[in-house]
């Protein structure tokens, strides 16, 4: 079963903007932004949150809910008391967690996997640590062609491609299945990047996409 996201913020503009960002990285994922109180001001609305969750469940999705602040979380917890299954609230950073969750949902992860991706997004706040590359790993070094570098959308495309590898793929030593970790590398147009892994076909596909330009 596919996973949809409900993004709950005190600000309608923030919720819509984050949904737009996530949608660029995960175009096939159903995402519902819910922001503001019932009068259109800052705050949260029980009815609006409940309607968004119910709409996605009725459409056949499982649902992961993301929140921005504590009071939004409390409102969502009250809403979810009425649901026994198929919906979860993620304890994760709002922006980074939503992006990571959207990419995981785009890759076909189940609800537990999408939630795990959101929770693990806290790693984006730490400097990326290069993992050891196996001596026998296949490697390709190419130059980033995209004018804006490996920003959100190219990173999401690479992450989706990397998910097809059985034994994992690394980009300059970080897990290429994580769009957030790719973005923390800060790779700009003209920078060299090394793609490595045991799956030669996937490594070649990613390297050639970067060299040709993704966005």
TrEMBL record:
The keyword Nucleus does not apply. GO terms for biological process: glycerol catabolic process; phosphoenolpyruvate-dependent sugar phosphotransferase system. One of its GO terms (cellular component) is membrane. GO terms for molecular function: phosphoenolpyruvate-glycerone phosphotransferase activity. It catalyses: dihydroxyacetone + phosphoenolpyruvate = dihydroxyacetone phosphate + pyruvate. Its EC number is 2.7.1.121. SUPFAM superfamilies: HPr-like, PTS system fructose IIA component-like. It comes from the Bacteria. InterPro entries: DhaM, DhaM_N, HPr-like, HPr-like_sf, PTS_EIIA_man-typ, PTS_EIIA_man-typ_sf, PTS_HPr_His_P_site. Residues 2-142 form the PTS EIIA type-4 domain. Keywords: Kinase, Transferase. Residues 137-215 form the HPr domain. Homodimer. The dihydroxyacetone kinase complex is composed of a homodimer of DhaM, a homodimer of DhaK and the subunit DhaL. General (non sugar-specific) component of the phosphoenolpyruvate-dependent sugar phosphotransferase system (sugar PTS). This major carbohydrate active-transport system catalyzes the phosphorylation of incoming sugar substrates concomitantly with their translocation across the cell membrane. The phosphoryl group from phosphoenolpyruvate (PEP) is transferred to the phosphoryl carrier protein HPr by enzyme I. Phospho-HPr then transfers it to the PTS EIIA domain. This is Phosphocarrier protein HPr. The lineage of its organism: Bacteria, Bacillati, Actinomycetota, Actinomycetes, Mycobacteriales.
């Amino acid at each position: 079963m596919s996973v949809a996201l409900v993004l709950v913020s005190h600000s309608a503009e923030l919720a819509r903007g984050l949904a737009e960002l996530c949608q660029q990285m995960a175009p096939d994922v159903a995402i519902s932004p819910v922001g503001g109180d019932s009068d259109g001001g800052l705050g949260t609305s029980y009815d609006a949150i409940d309607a968004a969750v119910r709409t996605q469940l009725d459409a056949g999705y499982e649902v992961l809910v993301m929140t921005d602040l504590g009071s939004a979380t409390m409102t969502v917890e009250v809403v979810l008391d009425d649901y026994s299954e198929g919906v979860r609230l993620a304890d994760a950073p709002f922006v980074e967690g939503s992006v990571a969750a959207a990419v995981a949902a785009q890759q076909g992860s189940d609800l537990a996997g999408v939630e795990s991706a959101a929770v693990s997004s806290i790693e984006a706040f730490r400097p990326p640590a290069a993992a050891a590359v196996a001596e026998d790993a296949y490697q390709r070094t190419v130059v980033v062609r995209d004018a804006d570098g490996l920003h959100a959308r190219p990173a999401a495309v690479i992450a989706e491609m990397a998910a097809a590898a059985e034994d994992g793929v690394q980009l300059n030593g970080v897990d290429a299945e994580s769009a957030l970790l790719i973005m923390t590398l800060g790779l700009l147009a003209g920078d060299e990047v090394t793609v490595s892994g045991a799956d030669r076909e996937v490594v070649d596909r990613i390297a050639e996409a970067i060299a040709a330009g993704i966005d």
